[in-house]
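FYI - complex with NAP, inputs then prediction.
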Amino acid sequence: MTAGGRGPFRVAVIGSGPAGFYVAEHLLSREGFDVTVDMFERLPTPFGLVRFGVAPDHEKIKNVTRTFEKKTASNPGYRFFGNVDVGIDVTLDDLRRHYHAVCFASGAQTDRQMGIPGEDLARSHPATEFVAWYNGHPDFRDCQFDLSVERVAVVGVGNVAVDVARILCRTPEELASTDIADYALEALTRSNVKEVHMLGRRGPAQAAFTNPEVRELGQMPGANVTVLPAEAQLDPLSREAVETADDRSLRKKLEIIESFTTGTLDPSKPRNLTIRFLVSPTELIGDTTGGVCGMTLVKNELYQTGNGSLRPRATERTEQLPVDLVFRSVGYHGLPISGLPFDERSGVVPNDHGRVMDGDTHLTGLYVSGWIKRGPTGVIGTNKPDALETVACIVADAETGVMLQPESPDRDAVTRMLAEKEHSFVSYEDWKLLDKLECDRGAGQNRPRVKFTTVAEALEALKAAAGPS
Ligand code: NAP
């Protein structure tokens, strides 16, 4: 089918992370659906959290970009418009003039707050900023993290907390073979960190990290990993839940955690990572210079809520944990998108299976996918079925004629609009050139790539590679 017999159905996808690429892939591979997809990305480089979220020592996970290229970017129906900020360089009204449907896949761009005193002291940072910094995200490359300290706490036991703890514990040699940003490699090579404490507010059975990630912590050449035996033991409610759940993967996770209670510390390893359970920070304590020097932890117990889940509740027992650097890794949070409704509490755009909803009304032609649709959960692959659901709505609506009515749906009108705005964009071909330049820079150092970490640097490199105009 086409857009009412007047050329292909035209979709704008906002965001070029996994969520956006899976939407494009499902659209372009749809049998009998004549569609073209233009993907808009604020930065000059594609792939969102695959480039700026996946840890540098997890190179294999980044191979998913090859699939994005093969299945989507090489499709003649696909175009990439990098360095175009929707909401600033191009408005939603601009998009309405050119597309039959607009799908936002722009992710969850900020961090969740813990809401405790001292959270904003110096040397207390959102883990999301540290992750973006070591991955060379242009918005975060100038962040400063004081790695001259010895004691660090990472609050939360999700996979981001694991990534942060692991990167802090990696040896300079291990980091030197990755695509970590140059400045981060230098700072982490000089790091003084000796103790890392990862803090879970619930028990081992509720830990959000996944098995391969927590297992990997036990395989680091430069760090011992410890769990306090008393904290590895399940409380009666968790034990009962584990026994009735019959979940092999959960049992494996508990075995891995248990294995960390018995090891002897290898004194030749320069760092110690301790994973704690059933503790919550209630206050970060500042020194005379306004920087963190410790935290008060309260010991928690679990109780069962009406829906059967086990939640933490503070007991009277507290302890002081001396730490001089804190990474708050308690989840991402979505930001509002100009022109779209937003649910502040959950940080998502209200939607029905991907259709953007204003109350009970679907806002015609507007869709969401990924973290801005369902919240910041799941691994890269989770975005695939999620995108399929959104695409099913887009296609069903197209078939029943529910779509935007663009004045200029022809493909060239978009490039003309950007030219009229005197806004130059980065095409997928440009990105391939940048990619090659980054990989070439890395090859000399036995690294997968050396990233361009400012927008200006990336655009300059492209200009130089294109030669005199
Ligand atoms: P997450 O998995 O939701 O974990 C958040 C952690 O913060 C949980 O341990 C949570 O505990 C804790 N937390 C929340 N509020 C807290 C509070 N007020 N005080 C103390 N602790 C609090 O989030 P994430 O680690 O940011 O990861 C986001 C998503 O990306 C996840 O789906 C993750 O699996 C994925 N990811 C995957 C990889 C990978 O595959 N290698 C790497 C990075 C990220 P409760 O459980 O008690 O709420």
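Residues 9-109+334-426 form a domain with the Rossmann fold fold (CATH 3.40.50.720). The first strand starts at residue 9 and ends at 14.
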